[in-house]
Amino acid sequence: MTAPWIAGFVALWVGFLALAVILLGLLRRMSPILERAEAQLGVHGGKASFGGAPVASAVAPFQLVDATGQTVLSRESVEEPTLLLFVAPGCQPCEQILGGLDGVGERYEGVPLHVVVEEEEGAVEAPPGVSLLYERGHAASAAFQTIVTPHAFVVDHGGLVLDQRIPGSADDLRQMALRQRGGGESTDGHTPHTHPHSIEPAEGR
Prior knowledge:
8 strands
């Protein structure tokens, strides 16, 4: 085998190896999304909607814990409209929104705010004073029917969804919070409900 053939053979293998590294990197980045999809399919018996729980629907039971593993928030413990922001490590839009929450604290325009991340996916830096909670096995993401980040929801007593959207900035979260104070319309065109007691979770949740 001549030198040009050897050089071409080596170059071909180097190209294959580089392609394999790139594909592995893409698979690692997609893994959290696939896990969330799998969690949703498992919770909903293979039938899932990934656009987020609809406004005026009641989500399935969920639990969110703090860094010590103590349950801080669940569907049953929500007592007032509460803003949940689902984020993930390495999500640049999430990082930009979190940066815009600096100085907000535990409430955004008077509405309780919690940043939610999957416990096993890694660390996320929330601004000082902003509540950072963890879901386990993407169970909360499945309850809220989402596999994307960032994704924000306003949930009320009994798990009633008052508003939801994929925010592009911290100001989008602010507008969601202000709608709860002012009784404005949600992003879906529905007027936020404040009396969830007549709403029942959909069958199968």
